[in-house]
Write a structure and sequence with these properties.
Bound molecules: zinc ion
Strand order of the largest sheet: 1-4-3
Number of strands: 5
Oligomer: single chain
Distance between the termini: 43 Å
Largest sheet: 3 strands, mixed
């Protein structure tokens, strides 16, 4: 939930120069998230989508096997949306998978191929 905006302490009709004024100097809750058009962004999302072509993983798999896969994804879209209910700005980020690789749970175990037989 966004904090309620306090009223501007500067006299009406003057230019507000008070950095403590949250109305004219909004603060970004998380400084790592860039503001959008001067407005604080409350949260970020990341949607990772699969590539249009299938990725090749060189392993023979059976039903109920569990595979440990690390994917690399390239960010393909960033846009901002107002949450209609809370009024908060959300930064939506989308990425498309560009590669995938089987990764062992324990890299020191030569029998760990990244496939757990089901
Ligand atoms: Zn102000």
């Amino acid at each position: 939930m966004p904090e309620p905006m306090s009223a501007c302490p500067s006299p009406l009709g003057t230019v507000c120069m008070d950095p403590a004024c949250r109305l004219h100097f909004p603060q970004q809750p998380d400084p790592d998230v860039p503001m959008f058009e001067g407005k604080p962004v409350e949260a970020t999302t990341l949607k990772v989508s699969s590539p249009t072509a299938g990725l090749e993983i060189d392993a023979v798999l059976r039903m109920d096997d569990i595979v440990r896969v690390v994917v690399e994804a390239r960010v393909s879209q960033v846009n901002h949306q107002v949450n209609e209910r809370t009024g908060a700005l959300i930064r939506h980020q989308s990425a498309k998978v560009i590669s995938a690789e089987l990764i062992p749970w324990d890299a020191t175990d030569p029998n760990d191929t990244g496939v757990l037989r089901g």
